[in-house]
Specification:
It is found in: Cytoplasm; Nucleus. There is one protein chain. With 598 residues, the chain is α/β, with parallel strands linked by helices. Helix content is 21%, strand content 22%. The protein has a seven-stranded mixed beta sheet. It has a seven-stranded mixed beta sheet with strand order 15-16-17-18-19-26-27, with no helix packed on it. Strands 22-21-23-20-24-25 form a six-stranded parallel beta sheet, with helices on both faces.
Length: 598
């Protein structure tokens, strides 16, 4: 009679060479998803899968900046004379923190952003971060630099480079107009509940933080490892992750996360429309146990082609009447499509002499990047590179001086600026960036028009601190991401066993409660999540591959009632006895059994 200690190893963090393994039947191991963001198109989820901890995106909710006063590039007498806020009964005096403007109350300090939840789990335990597109990585410096994170970030090259531009632009916007004073008293719960709306209803204000620095940005992005579409990346020998083209933006990805017997698909920010990126890879999503779905269109009833048509017609109408057009936009993404649309439109509309200005600290780099990432473009644009011909027509607009770009309104722009014109500039929130100057400059004339194309912000809230406003406002939100009809068709084709999604997708929009077509109706019903929720993922797991300690002698391959974190026992009948070869393995996370008699 011999007795042997029988350990089971579920994970290795070293590059070990495995010479033997067992496959166990009817194993029970938990898989969890932690939701750290309440914004469905700016997701941040953490997946605990096969003893690896994987963060899926780290979107930054910038809608919080709508509660703040704009940061003007030049002194604004109007904003500097706003009265401070005092409660009607005089018991609360926040004159230094809050200002009354156009019937609303705004915070008078540097704008702050709503960060992903940091208290739900220990973020220093995250092994890897998978980024799906450059809009979903804007919170990365907050995660990698201030939580003890020591892992690796995976992203495609366009996602990394354009994400760097967007972060650099954001930092530049903030540092150009520094505000020394900070506002904190209004955030106390007992005070906030007494404030007028919408400040009273602002959520998660305790998590709001000022913008990071370029030092934080550079340090965070140094942790990024580049990957290409369909490239398989092994994580600790336990999990394999693979990026797939999502069709939404340059380098945007969906991710496959799989082990020997389980498969999770992460679908975020995807598009089936024919625009400039590579088309979406749908077939690789098939046979998923769980599909995590996020990043659907924010404008499910707005057709992108129709919005482009409205954009062009309103632009032409304003220019012909002698007015100027202001287009608040990000420095990458939809602006490429807008410029391409205008390239085809301006000659037919007799607008060839109208100057177009693109103003951003990163304007030059953005326009250059769109031309050099040829392998990430759709086939039609890739083929132009070999003609040779630039894939985007804005190169020709620049060569013919119809499109000019500048880092800011200062310097060359001020001497070359002529009206009427079209200006593309940021930030779409109208709270910081060069757009604030043009709002002050053009807002008093009804000849001018502001055209909103970015869907991330309520245009009424964006305009609130500029009221009363004489300039015309046109809302043409262009969002090419999947709508509910497209995603329902996609799910029927790829047939995942279970779908997990934000709770917003499981019910109609509050303003359109009768529209059952604007929600997901699936069988089985999707599993909804919200900020700070933790879900147990519904895997039907029947097999597990494990490793055993070396030199344990003959071991039975039939082990029943295996439970994670509990002791295991061999029970009769013994089905088969195998001698195991010696293995080199690190013994982290070993679960020891009672003595097993053979």
């Amino acid at each position: 009679m011999h007795s042997h200690s029988l350990p089971i190893v579920f994970r290795s963090r070293m590059n070990s060479f495995m010479q033997g393994h067992l496959v166990l039947h009817n194993c029970s191991i938990s898989f969890f998803q932690y939701c750290l963001s309440g914004h469905p198109t700016l997701p941040c989820n953490v997946l605990k899968f096969k003893s690896t901890t994987i963060m899926l995106d780290c979107g930054l909710d910038t809608t919080s900046v709508l509660q703040f006063l704009p940061l003007p590039l030049v002194h604004s007498p109007r904003l500097s004379k706003l009265p401070g806020w005092v409660s009607k009964d005089g018991t609360i005096n926040l004159e230094k923190e809050l200002k009354e403007c156009a019937g609303r109350v705004f915070v008078d300090s540097q704008p702050e952003f709503c960060l992903p939840e940091k208290e739900l789990l220990d973020l220093s335990t995250i092994d890897v971060i998978l980024i799906s597109n450059y809009h979903c990585m804007m919170a990365l410096p907050y995660i990698t630099e201030h939580t003890g994170f020591t892992g690796t970030v995976y992203a495609t090259e366009p996602t990394l480079q354009i994400g760097r531009l967007l972060m650099e632009e954001l930092v530049n916007f903030m540092e150009r107009v520094p505000k020394a004073q900070s506002a904190t008293c209004w955030k106390y719960k007992e005070i906030q509940r007494l404030l007028p709306g919408p400040l009273k209803d602002a959520v998660e204000v305790s998590t709001w933080k000022r913008c990071y620095s370029m030092q934080d940005v550079n340090s965070a992005l140094s942790k990024v490892q580049l990957v290409g579409y369909s490239q398989k990346v092994e994580l600790f020998g336990a999990v394999q992750v693979t990026p797939l083209s999502s069709g939404y933006s340059l380098g945007s990805s969906n991710w496959i996360i799989q082990s020997h017997y389980e498969k999770v698909s992460y679908v975020s920010g995807s598009s089936l429309l024919t625009t400039h990126p590579q088309p979406m890879d749908q077939s690789s999503l098939k046979n998923s146990d769980v599909l995590i779905l996020t990043g659907l269109t924010q404008m499910p009833t707005a057709n992108p082609d129709g919005m482009l048509g409205d954009f062009c017609s309103n632009l032409a109408m304003t220019i012909r009447a002698g007015g100027n057009v202001l287009v608040p936009c990000y420095s990458s993404g939809v602006i490429y499509d807008l410029l391409e649309c205008l390239y085809q439109f301006i000659e037919n509309a007799n607008l060839g002499s109208t100057p177009f200005y693109f103003i951003s600290p990163v304007a030059n780099s953005s326009l250059e990047f769109s031309q050099i990432f040829a392998e990430w473009l759709c086939h039609n644009k890739q083929s132009k590179v070999y003609l040779p011909e630039p894939p985007f027509p804005h190169a020709e607009l620049i060569q013919t001086n119809k499109l000019k770009h500048y880092p800011s309104i200062h310097g060359d722009f001020s001497s070359e600026f002529r009206q009427p014109c079209v200006v593309f500039t940021g930030h779409p929130s109208l709270r910081f960036g060069d757009v604030v100057h043009f709002m002050e400059l053009w807002g008093k004339s009804s000849l001018n028009t502001i055209i909103f194309t970015e869907p991330d912000f309520s245009y009424l809230d964006a305009l609130a601190p500029y009221q009363p406003l004489a300039m015309k406002c046109v809302y043409c939100p262009i969002d090419t991401r999947l709508n509910f009809h497209q995603v329902s068709k996609l799910l029927k084709e790829v047939q995942p066993l279970h779908v997990v999604c934000p709770e917003q997708y499981t019910q109609p929009p509050p303003a359109q409660s009768h529209r059952s077509d604007l929600m997901l109706e699936l069988q089985p019903p999707p599993m909804p999540y919200r900020r700070c929720s933790v879900l147990g993922l519904p895997f039907r797991r029947r097999w597990e591959r494990i490793q055993l300690l070396p030199d344990v002698g003959p071991v039975a391959t039939h082990l029943s009632d295996l439970q994670w974190g509990k002791k295991i026992f061999t029970q009769p009948p013994i089905v088969q006895v195998l001698p195991l070869k010696k293995m080199r393995e690190d013994w982290e996370n070993v679960i020891w059994s009672d003595e097993t008699k053979i």
